[in-house]
Amino acid sequence: MDMTTGSNESKSRYLRYLEIVTGSLEEKKRYRRYKARVKRLPDNYRIAVEALERYLMHFGPADGAGAMEMYEDLADLFEQSAADATPIRDLFGDDPIEFAETFMANYPLGQYRARERHRFASAVARAAGDTTPPQGRTV
Question: Is this model's pTM higher than 0.70 or not?
């Protein structure tokens, strides 16, 4: 199959299809820039950021721009902390989990997680015989 086309419309359609399958190319570029920034941090800050990143990937926003905004802000925070020589413990405090949860609270959940939370809360409400839609942390 020949992927080269004579028209921009066909190429544009192909790129749109490719992004549907593989995800946004711009988001991939942003992620690579973020990873390069983290790699340039001093070792102790890099280790801390990578640990926090692993945690955020499991519990933070799960998709697209919301996640990338969070990671870019994370890089900003650690770059500034390294420049100011802020001790890691001063940055995280006594409870790293509380720090991570507070940090994540500033960003919306990914669409998938918000949808699944709503689906779960609705199913429990139906099972309990509730007639009103679920309230609370569904998004």
Answer: no
